[in-house]
Amino acid sequence: MGSIELVQADITTLTVDAIVNAANSSLLGGGGVDGAIHRAAGPDLLKECRLLGGCEPGEAKVTAGYRLPARWVIHTVGPVWRGGRSGEEEVLRDCYRHSLEQMVRLRAASVAFPSISTGLYGYPVERAARVAVQEVQRHLAESPWPERVVFVAFDPATYEAYRALLEAPAG
Ligand code: APR
What we know:
Blueprint: E1 3-8, E2 18-23, H1 32-41, H2 43-50, E3 60-64, E4 72-77, H3 88-106, E5 110-113, H4 125-142, E6 148-153, H5 156-166
Parallel strand pairs: 1-6, 2-4, 2-5, 5-6
Antiparallel strand pairs: 3-4
Helix pairs in contact: 3-4, 4-5
Bound molecules: adenosine-5-diphosphoribose.
């Protein structure tokens, strides 16, 4: 079963096979982690994204990493938080599931996830972290790929939300 790690870092610096981008449905870049990934990858990333025809919330599409240390970028579109009664949780679960399915298809050994939807899209961090950890643990129990999942927090509060869940007693 693959390992799960937690780091506080800039995801664009990590040397993993694939990093996940918390994009918007246009896939044409934005702020937050999306902006950081496009800045670090260079203009060829946007050129490839233009060919993808956008991405539905919950779906995941793959591009090369270009100037990033990561070989691939998996672009996924998280839900915008609207209070929790508009199916946000299911869309967030789909982001993790479909990103992990792309890992299996790519035979990628290591992947890094940002905290999808918990920035501009306003999803409460604790609730989002629970979804993220549940979906990754569920996947790793059933699939040999990836071998290594890194959750990347960009601030201490997000780091703490994931740490509390990952260190909670199993069961
Ligand atoms: N590395 C890792 N995590 C980062 C980085 C980075 N370089 N920059 C930001 N983050 C973190 C944020 O602090 C937050 O915890 O990524 C998490 C997700 O925040 P956003 O990037 O705002 O993404 P999201 O909430 O999913 O909103 C997506 O924002 O940037 C636009 O185009 C994007 O419209 C889309 C929306």
